[in-house]
Design brief:
globular; 13 helices; eight-stranded parallel beta barrel; alpha/beta; TIM Barrel; 340 residues
Length: 340
């Protein structure tokens, strides 16, 4: 079995996907349990995401879910991948992370994205519109000002208890967002692994434009993407099937369904459009045996110089998911005493 030479940190992102036959509350409980597993296996951090009004995703309040994850674990870093800053007031985000960092000192990360609500209805419900995403750089600067006490727009107001606490910020982005991260001197979380050339260009631009700051003295790159590891290539492919079908169905029917068992999906009579989107969802993912994935990850780390790899895997079979996480931990050399 191959392993990475001088591997970077490895972390895990879970999007709290719902599964057929299980409700949203169960998906959130699954996320908390998965965080415990990630901690036991030696992953560096565990992040949760933000989605609104998506039938197949239960994670709508990442800071609340991060609190539950942090309370159920003891050593792993916990954060958001990410809070979509255009959906929120920076002052409130600062306060929320201040509470998290106060309750779980030294363990909280603040991952921030620049997406705004996905549909017009969601944006109206959030009191936002598409143009709010254009102000991300200003929103980010305001948020950082609340954290370090340098904001001047409201001199008599302070984000308590956040001001002065150690709350590392990360920017989730590619393209223009990577430039914003570089200008602010913040770590960058960039994906996905399917478009390698675009990813490499974004990382190169980020490093070339990086301005050292009080948040980070040098560039820090987290490469994120879908990874599935199993005993055979076919078993790894089957891990990807539920998510690929969910995405294909959403693109052809306008509804994002819960994850279904792989064997159920493989027995479907798909339309040509569904089949095309389904096959596209399986392409370009990093999936296979431990040797295959180790080689693929080694190439990605070498090409990007990544400091960290943030893995996400959404599938119906929880036992197979834990097996994939365990195999990846072995590849990465995490928690050797637990895996020997």
């Amino acid at each position: 079995m191959s392993s990475l030479v001088a591997p970077p940190r490895f972390s895990f992102l879970d999007r709290s996907r719902t599964r057929k036959g299980y409700d949203g509350p169960q998906a959130l409980r699954d996320t908390v349990q998965l965080a415990r597993t990630a901690e036991e296996l030696g992953y560096h951090r565990f992040w949760v995401s933000e989605h609104h009004s998506v039938p197949g995703v239960a994670g709508s309040a990442p800071t609340v879910l991060a609190a539950a994850v942090a309370a159920a674990t003891s050593t792993i870093r916990v954060g958001t991948g990410g809070v979509m800053l255009p959906n929120h007031q920076p002052f409130v985000v600062a306060e929320q992370f201040g509470v998290l960092a106060s309750l779980f000192p030294g363990r909280i990360d603040m991952g921030l994205g620049r997406s705004v609500g996905f549909t017009d209805g969601v944006r109206r419900a959030l009191g936002r519109d598409k143009r709010d995403a254009e102000g991300f750089a200003g929103q980010l600067a305001e948020l950082l000002g609340w954290l370090d006490g340098t904001q001047q727009a409201h001199p008599q107001v302070h984000a308590r208890p956040a001001e002065g606490l150690d709350i590392p910020p990360y920017v989730l982005a590619i393209g223009e967002g990577a430039a914003i991260a570089a200008a602010a001197g913040l770590p960058l979380v960039v994906g996905d692994l399917r478009d390698r050339e675009r990813l490499i260009r974004a990382v190169e631009r980020y490093r070339g434009a990086f301005e050292p700051s009080g948040w980070s003295e040098k560039p820090y790159v987290v490469v994120s993407g879908t990874v599935a590891v199993a005993g055979t290539a076919e078993a790894a492919r089957r891990l990807l099937v539920p998510e690929a079908w969910s995405m294909a169905y959403a693109r052809t029917h306008g509804t994002f369904p819960p994850l279904a068992p792989a064997e159920e999906i493989e027995g479907l009579a798909m339309t040509a459009g569904e089949r095309g989107f389904f096959e596209d969802g399986l392409r370009g993912r990093l999936a296979g045996t431990e040797d295959t994935v180790a080689a693929g990850l080694g190439g990605i780390v070498e090409e990007t110089g990544a400091d960290e790899v943030l893995v996400t895997t959404s599938t119906y079979d929880r036992e197979a998911l834990v097996d994939s996480m365990t195999r990846l931990a072995r590849i990465a050399g995490l928690g050797r005493e637990r895996l020997s």
